[in-house]
Write a structure and sequence with these properties.
six-stranded antiparallel beta sheet; alpha/beta; about 550 residues
Length: about 550
Amino acid sequence: MLVNLHVKNLALIDEIEVDFAEGLNILTGETGAGKSIIIGSISLALGGKMSRDMIRENAPFALVELVFSVNNPKILEELKKQDIFAEDGQIIITRKITGNRSISKINGEACTVAQIREAAGKLLDIHGQHEHQSLLYPAKQLEILDEYGKDNLADSSQKVKEAYRRYKKLQEELAEYQMDEEQRKREISFLEFEIQEITDADLKNGEDGELEQRYRKLLNGKKILENAAQVYQMCAADNGCSDLLGRSLYQMTQVAEYDDTLAPLCSVLSDAEALLNDFNRELSGYMDNFSYSEEEFHETEERLDWINHLKMKYGQSIELILIQLEEKEKQLARLLDFETEKARLMTEYNIEEKKLSEACRELSEKRKEEALKLELNITEGLRDLNFADVRFKVNFSEKEHFSAEGTDSVEYLIATNPGEALKPLAKVVSGGELSRIMLAIKTLLADKDETETLIFDEIDTGISGRTAQKVSEKMAVIGRNHQVLCITHLPQIAAMADSHYLIEKKVTNMETTTRIRRIGQEASIEEIARILGGAKITSTVLESAREMKDLAQVQKNSRVK
């Protein structure tokens, strides 16, 4: 679960640090106090996008740090697959943003935003203010069904993906055979020309490197010989190094017999003389054997030019050119045996299409089994959320074309009143109803994937009265098995808080900042009274808030029993 949030220099936040608790954590505050900035900072740390002007004015950077306590073995195992290991049961995610870049870290090690997002999917689920609108799209509805039934659907879904990949590959290969005879002849002629061009070159791996070395040698032949001759003159001629070294050795030998300590020095001079004589002999041999041929130079130059020409056309190395040659020979063979190869591909394509169709049918059957369970569970969840006579159904239709997700297209149908026909969500429900449906779905998915932390950003939009009470009871139920962070404007939901946090906007020295603090029982009652009564809080309103808090506690206690 999320145990600590630290934010610095973000929008109205100068610096805040807050510890969250287990169960239902409720966040309330005046409009404009910065409630959404708090949740937004969590999204930011987990890879969300942010405008650079969100960095607090005159601040060099913005920083968000999340500390998670992870004890669930399944989640720990999933994180290990990403090479993320909990240290003392904790995962620390940090994101620091400057004017031109951002740095993300997990447990102190730099990582990509993509890695952060993948890890975040195991740790928490954020439901934003407008996310419920995605429920209106068939693709999202299918995604929810697949997520709900993933344990039963995983193998079949993987079979469809693999079969679709093979099917698409053959489909693409067959597309290359959609040409008339004239086009085929042009392709054959062009391939034959390219193959002949490469084959005639008779390329050898590494040949270009040897040619470049020889070319440099021939190009600088005159300079090489002039310098070698000067060196030989200095080392081997009269009064050269060799002559002087020989005289030095003679002089040293004359006196070495008078002092034994000079013997090693004589030995060094003797070795030096032998090495220099060897050098002189090898240098002389090199100059004798060095030959410069204008014809050889031009042949080397032409060969290099031709190889470089082929590199520009077919690849940046001889190895790549030869690989291209193999590919072109295969293409030519397919075109020369056009009808046979096309028939072979068509046979394979038909086989794979049949396999894909069977895999899609198997997946569809399993989806329909899961859809029946989903219908019952969502219906039950909606009744808990004050949909008294609701009916919910997952309607299936078949897409015209295969996809990696199969051929199913699903549409959620609902009837919220007795006697009404089932209709698509978009034609029936209001924003508040859609929000409650998403809450029911989130509850189901959270229980199945064992997500420890759920965050709801104003999911109470468009609801009030008895419905608000039902939503608050659902939140309390979710909070028994999950950590929940919920921003709300409703007193019924605020009253259900296991831990209540107040978000305030303060002005100090003409500077506005957002603060968040955990409040106790009495302060929580006062905040509920503020939500109930608005600007003026009377004793009657305060008493109503206290009663609402007490009733919420009774409700939670009865649920526990």
